[in-house]
Write a structure and sequence with these properties.
Elements lengths: L7 E4 L4 E5 L6 H4 L5 E7 L3 E3 L4 E6 L5 E6 L4 E5 L12 E3 L6 E2 L4 E5 L1 H7 L5 E5 L5 E6 L3 E3 L4 E7 L18 E7 L8 H12 L4 E5 L5 E3 L3 H6 L7 E7 L3 H14 L26 E3 L1 E4 L3 E7 L14 H23 L4 H13 L2 H12 L4 H17 L4 H4 L2 H15 L14 E4 L4 H6 L7 E4 L7 H9 L3 E3 L13 E5 L2 E4 L3 H23 L5 E2 L5 E8 L2 H10 L4 E5 L13 H15 L4 E4 L27 H6 L1 H12 L7 E5 L5 H18 L5 E6 L2 H5 L1 H4 L5 E4 L1 H9 L6 H4 L7 H16 L3 E4 L10 H6 L4 E4 L1 H12 L3 H12 L4 H15 L1
Parallel strand pairs: 21-22, 22-23, 23-24, 28-29, 28-35, 29-30, 30-31, 31-32, 32-33, 33-34, 34-35
Antiparallel strand pairs: 1-14, 2-3, 2-13, 3-11, 4-10, 5-6, 5-9, 6-7, 7-11, 8-10, 12-14, 15-18, 16-17, 16-18, 19-26, 20-24, 21-25, 25-26, 27-28
Helix pairs in contact: 2-9, 3-5, 6-7, 6-11, 7-11, 8-9, 9-11, 14-26, 15-16, 15-26, 16-18, 18-19, 27-28
The protein binds phosphoenolpyruvate and magnesium ion.
């Protein structure tokens, strides 16, 4: 009879929130490449021993420690994600390799407030690295946990018998060795070590890595490799023995020399570390992302530095709670005041006020105060917990919402430190410059007569960008750290996606002339915004607006939109801990329908997925989220999500008519299933069946449009995704997204297929991606036979004005030529000529 297996209890090394390992936003941990385990989102900065044992290694960057418990399990504890890049800043290891520790001893003290600001994520995985000897039999449930509470139970595994020697005599013949210097910016830390070990495991040869001091580790053990603490530039010796040794070593060298996504030539500065003052220089001309197009000239004026420092330890629970409550009340009052005004500023202030009032946010902060932290540190920790899933998202629209959370974080910290919220005013006509500009900082300067904005960070869909667009301020973003070097008062010019420092007289004169003709065109567009868009030869093209809120709906009506061509309903589902109820949804859709009045409303059902995380839906990690469970696939897999949304939609009264649109369709069966649900609900609720259409975002939908049109009442081309999937360029990956131009002839050919397929069944085709707002694309879209174009409200008047200058037949000739051109640049050049002739 076998002896009963003894259960080993592992204590929580942190106070915080238990998170399943698969929810850690890092494939190495989520994919269990380093072993099985669990993660904790810490609310205090003390990593403690999860049991008595011996320290196997402490990483030189101080962020990770490996401990061998006396009971046998070897655990890796890794504070935060990508924290190796901090190079030790914020970490104070209290133990060293070889030390003996008791249960609960402090292993590493860390500065939670600093990590909350600087690290990608605070979530701290703890993994069992000798999983061949132990398995997890129980784990504490997701939720709050205190350091020392039971976190895991492990059971020893019985050896399958004998084990196998590493080397058998017949595999001894091959032997290979190579020495190289590590071109990995952060050395062989957890992620590259795991990739190396996965590669080593796929080869029969025995692979080893040797540090300059002779310490050697088997490459199959990521933890052993990690324990060598090999930093960037270290000279390492790699050895392979046994069958296929040479090939295995080649593969390993190739992987290491690739830099594993962290390539940094040996001898360069390490990104992420504070560069030496001389490392960054301010070029005369610098390119960035165009958040708001336009031309601006004016003196530089820097945004005020944020108030973010505060002590970690509280002065007492009652005192800190009261200070937090006072600060929250102060910030709430200021936001509510701003929310009374009109326009996007008010909506963003209202959104911030709603975030501020989120009960989980406050509860998180109160819990951290109860654990002894100061109000400021507790508030930052609570914000960090919300911000992490958003920050981890490769989808910019979600990742950029982090700025809103940081904004309310800073507002509360400023109130806690007793500082007034609004900063001094810039001179009239200034260009606002900042490494990172927060929505509240721009809101405070709304009436200051700025000329433009140059932002080091941020993206084109950030709230700062939205506010800037609402204020009509040309804005460049993602300019990098050099913007901090601009001397206040220096003359700057923004034009064509670049800013120029101290532009010459002739550069300024040319920019002023271009700005004047753009302004003329804009004035003409605005003067005629309410008129329909009809080409010179009488073809009527409907111009609708893309909406993401009630504010957008009001703006679109003033801008002359003839309807809503795309309501992105994600705005209702983000940044909250539970999904909206049917009634909440119904009310929001009804408000938008009322704002549109007699104009048609096309509502896209929820388009979230693994790359657009929402805290209330468990989404398993996916290697390729863009190709994963998203859009209609996710809604069909979560039937209640689709049904609730359709129920809310069917219940509204849309004076201009309601149409429902499905995102990311690639199969006829998806439309058929959604149609069955929609018609059943309409029948049950005694309401008319709305038109049901689809977004054409996949090449499959475009190529099969002829058969899809039997099930879909209309098509709207999502040119953003259609180009991403056609050109195999991830729209969220900066290095390839720059080459993502939807005017590529391959995308244009798919548009032709879609229009042809739609016409076979007498359906109409619109386009609601970014192309509809690109004046150069408009002649082509008219020529390709689109019936409707849907653009952001701010672009509607201009798109209409461009159409008015066109001749449909000339556009058709242009489209025919464009389809045979080799690339997007050639198409753009040709279409630009046609556009110039037309205006
Ligand atoms: C598109 O893909 O073009 C589109 C309009 O949808 P989204 O940008 O929301 O993915
Ligand atoms: Mg899309």
């Amino acid at each position: 009879m076998m002896a009963p297996q003894e259960t080993i209890t592992i204590a929580s090394p942190l106070t915080g929130w238990v998170t399943p390992l698969e929810d850690v936003p890092d494939p190495v941990f989520a994919g269990r490449m380093l072993g099985d385990g669990v993660a904790i989102d810490p609310t205090e900065g003390m990593l403690r021993a999860p049991g008595a044992g011996r320290i196997v290694s402490v990483h030189t960057a101080g962020h990770a420690v490996t401990i061998e418990l006396d009971a046998g399990p070897v655990l890796l504890l890794h504070i935060g994600l990508d924290t190796v890049a901090l190079s030790g800043e914020g970490f104070q290891p209290q133990v060293a390799e070889g030390d003996r520790v008791s249960d609960g001893d402090v292993l590493i003290a860390f500065d939670l407030a600093l990590l909350a600001r600087r690290a990608r994520s605070l979530v701290t995985p703890m993994v069992v690295t000798n999983g061949e000897a132990f398995r997890i039999s129980a784990s504490a449930p997701a939720g709050a946990i205190a350091a020392g509470d039971m976190l895991l139970q492990l059971e020893p595994l019985v050896s399958a018998g004998g084990g196998q020697g590493l080397l058998s005599p017949e595999i001894m013949e091959d032997l290979a060795e190579r020495t190289l210097r590590l071109p990995l910016a952060h050395g062989l830390h957890a992620r590259p070590a795991a990739r190396l070990s996965a590669l080593a495991a796929s080869h029969g040869a025995v692979l080893e890595v040797m540090a300059p001091d002779g310490r050697t580790a088997s490459m199959r053990s990521a933890v052993a490799v990690l324990a060598l603490s090999l930093s960037h530039g270290t000279r390492v010796t790699l050895r392979a023995r046994g069958v296929g040794a040479v090939a295995a070593l080649d593969a390993v060298c190739t992987l290491i020399e690739s830099g594993m996504d962290e390539y940094l030539a040996v001898g360069q500065d390490i990104p992420g570390q504070r560069p030496a003052a001389a490392a960054i220089t301010l070029p005369r001309r610098l390119g960035g992302g165009v958040a708001v197009p336009g031309i601006a000239i004016g003196p530089a004026w820097h945004v005020a530095v944020r108030h973010s420092e505060c002590s970690d330890q509280g002065k007492g629970i009652e005192i800190e709670r009261e200070e937090l409550a006072t600060a929250l009340a102060h910030v709430r009052a200021r936001l509510c005041e701003k929310a009374q005004a009109a326009g996007p500023l008010a909506a963003i202030a209202a959104g911030h006020a709603a975030m501020l009032d989120d009960p989980e946010l406050e509860a998180g902060a109160i819990a951290a105060i109860a654990a002894g932290r100061s109000a400021g540190a507790a508030w930052s920790a609570a914000i960090a917990r919300f911000a992490e899933p958003l920050r981890a998202s490769p989808d910019k629209r979600f990742a950029e919402r982090v700025a809103d959370l940081l904004d309310i974080e800073q507002s509360v910290l400023a109130a806690l430190s007793g500082q007034p919220g609004d900063s001094a005013l810039p001179p009239l006509g200034a260009i606002l410059v900042g490494g990172d500009i927060l929505p509240s900082q721009l809101m405070a300067l709304a009436g200051a007569g700025l000329a433009g904005i140059a932002c080091g960070a941020g993206g084109t869909t950030s709230h700062v960008a939205i506010i800037a667009a609402g204020l009509g301020l040309p804005m460049l973003c993602s300019l990098g750290p050099a913007v901090d070097l601009i001397e206040p008062g220096t003359q700057l010019m923004i034009r064509d996606g670049h800013f120029t420092v101290d532009p010459s007289e002739s550069e300024m004169a040319s920019a002023r002339a271009a700005a004047a003709s753009l302004a003329d065109l804009r004035r003409a567009a605005e003067a005629r915004s309410a008129e329909p868009a009809v080409t010179r030869d009488g073809a009527r093209i409907e111009v609708f607006a893309n909406l993401g809120s009630l504010t957008d709906a009001h703006a679109s009506v003033s801008a002359g939109a003839e309807g809503c061509g795309l309501l992105r309903t994600e705005f209702l589902f983000l940044g909250r801990s539970v999904p909206p109820t049917i009634e909440e949804q119904r009310q929001a859709y009804q408000d938008i329908a009322d704002a549109l009045g007699p104009r048609p409303l096309i509502v896209r059902t929820l388009d979230i997925g693994a790359d657009k995380p929402v805290p209330w839906l468990a989404q398993p990690h996916e290697e390729n989220p863009a190709l994963g469970l998203r859009g209609i696939r996710l809604q069909l897999a979560n039937a209640a999500l689709l049904e609730d949304q359709l129920r809310a939609l069917v219940a509204i009264h849309a004076p201009g008519g309601l149409r429902v649109m499905l995102p990311m369709v690639s199969d006829l069966a998806e439309i058929a299933e959604a149609r069955r649900t929609l018609s059943r609900l309409a029948r049950e609720m005694g309401r008319p069946m709305p038109d049901l259409g689809i977004m054409v975002e996949t090449p499959a939908a475009a190529l099969l449009a002829g058969s899809f049109a039997a099930e879909a009442d209309f098509f709207s081309i999502g040119s953003n995704d259609l180009s991403q999937y056609t050109l195999a360029r991830d729209r969220t990956t900066a290095s390839v997204a720059a080459g993502l131009d939807a005017l590529h002839p391959a995308v244009l050919r798919l548009i032709v297929e879609t229009v042809k397929g739609a016409r076979k069944h007498g359906r109409w085709t619109g386009l609601c991606g970014g192309l509809a707002a690109d004046p150069v694309a408009v002649p082509l879209l008219v020529g390709l036979g689109l019936d409707e174009l849907s653009a952001p409200p701010a672009a509607v008047a201009m798109t209409k004005q461009v159409i008015r200058g066109l001749d449909r037949q000339a556009c058709e000739a242009l489209a025919r030529r464009a389809l045979n051109l080799p690339d997007a640049d050639a198409v753009r050049a040709l279409a630009s000529l046609v556009l110039e002739d037309a205006q």
